[in-house]
Amino acid sequence: MLSVVVLISGGGSNLRALLEAAADAEYPARVVAVGTDRPEAEGLTHAEDFGVPTFEVALSSFETRDAWGDALLEQIRQWNPDLVVLSGFMRLLPAHVVDALAPHLINTHPAYLPEFPGAHGVRDALAAGATQTGASLIVVDNGVDSGPIIARERIAIVPGDTETSLHERIKPVERRLLIQAVLDIANGNLDLKELSKA
After folding, report:
1. Rounded to an integer, what distance in angstroms lies between the CA atom of residue 191 and that of residue 43?
2. Which of 47, 107, 175, 184 could form a disulfide with 86 if both were Cys (CB 3.0 to 4.6 A apart)?
């Protein structure tokens, strides 16, 4: 059984989908803990609904990003996860945290990488006048959304799309890619170490 820690900053819709998938006895992964950098993160309610423990490590509680990273890594390691999923986690992890967890550290992104990396992928796609964007799942490295691509899928941008409407169409694709990738990792059909060497 693959053990997973999920880190969130917001609503946690991807987390919810993964928790629902993992509630099926046939699904070979379990979310063992959910962490956040924001105590007000709405997605924590999903963890509570499924009886999953949560932890909070707020950046504002530490003098440096590295100190915050140390505390976050300590919390994650308490759960000894096989995989860490960044799901709408809006903080860049310090390099030493990425190095400690890689390559078993993955992230969802609302764009067809390497197009439109960064915190505003949906907004940037609209601002660029793109006719399509997408959803991606990557192995996290020390760049900005620059790690090896696990999966990605195209999504059309339609006339009248707003940042909100487009993001709402991207989210179900992100969720599907994440659930399938976790399944593939758990079943041994996806080797993150090999992918990271490529």
Report:
1. 29
2. 107
Q: Which of the residues 96, 109, 120, 167 is marked catalytic?
A: 109
**Is 90 flagged in the annotation as binding?**
yes
Rg of the chain (C-alpha set) = 16
- 91 assigned ligand-binding residue: yes
- What does pTM read for this prediction? 0.96
pLDDT of 80-124, one tens digit each? 999 999 998 989 999 999 999 999 999 999 999 999 999 999 999
Q: Is 120 a catalytic residue?
A: no
All structural domains of the chain, each given as residue ranges with its CATH number in brackets, are: 2-192 (3.40.50.170)
Cβ atoms of residues 179 and 17 within 8 Å: yes
Contact present, 22 and 29 (Cβ < 8 Å) = yes
